[in-house]
Here is the input.
Amino acid sequence: MTTVVEIKGFDEFAKYAENIPANDPLVLFYFSGSKLPNGSSWCPDCVEAEPIIKTFLTEVKKDVKFVYVDVGDREYWKDRACPFRTDSRTKLMVIPTLIKWKGVQRLEGSQCCNRELLQMLFEDDD
Here is the structure.
């Protein structure tokens, strides 16, 4: 079963990450640009990846906590001092990025649209 959590901004992300119970199921963080009034992200790569990931989540056969993280608007994201870029837990270089928490595995950019890579990320146990 997939549980979806939505987070906005770095402070909410940091607070959530600090309070993840050790016995939580697989936790995946998906970092995406904020939504425009039309409901789509300002980030074209995020717009492309999101439906593929959402469809994939409906097919997952194990307990997964999927945390959608809104990294903010384009100007905030593009700032080199953006905490999502500089924080040691995230070190984001591009969005979208999907990170397996407490592991080293991640998918970045167009990799988030690759079903085989998604399968490996969800099924590989460290």
